[in-house]
UniProtKB/TrEMBL annotation:
<dbReference type="Pfam" id="PF12867">
    <property type="entry name" value="DinB_2"/>
</dbReference>
<protein>
    <submittedName>
        <fullName>DUF1569 domain-containing protein</fullName>
    </submittedName>
</protein>
<feature type="domain" description="DinB-like">
    <location>
        <begin position="14"/>
        <end position="143"/>
    </location>
</feature>
<dbReference type="InterPro" id="IPR024775">
    <property type="entry name" value="DinB-like"/>
</dbReference>
<dbReference type="InterPro" id="IPR034660">
    <property type="entry name" value="DinB/YfiT-like"/>
</dbReference>
Amino acid sequence: MTSVEIAEKIQNLSAEQKPIFGRMTPQHVLEHLTITVKLSTGRIKIPEFTPSEKQLEMKRLLLDTEMEFPKGIKAPNDTGDLPELRHPNLDTAKEKLVQSLEEFEEKYKQEPDFKAIHPRFGYLNHQEWLRFHAKHFKHHLSQFGI
C-alpha cells in the first residue's frame, strides 16, 4: 500500500470510532503504525539481536505465506497499558503516518538494499518490510472496519 492509498483509507477514521477487536483507539493505532514504519527506515533504532528459531519460523509464516496477522498478538514492548499519545489529535496522527510512509518510499528508492531491524524478526529488506506492513496495516485498519 502506498502513502496515497493509506491516506485515502484513513480519511474517514474518526476519534470516536470503537474498535471491532482490540483495545487501541484510532489514534493509538495510527501512532503504532507510524512507529513501525519509522523502524523500517531506520529512523527509530533498536538494539541488534539474533532472532530465535521460533521468531524465524513466525517470520517465515507471516512473510512467506497467506497467513493473516494474528488477532491478539502483542507488540514486543506492550506493557498491558495503552501508551501515552504522542500527537495532539487524530488529524495530526494521520498526517504523521502518511509522512512516515512517504519517507519509507523515498528511503528504499534512494537505498534499495537498505535493511532495518524488526523487533521480532531481525533485519528485513525492502520486500520483507512491504509484506510486513501490508499485513500489519490490514490487521490494524480492520479493527475499525477499514
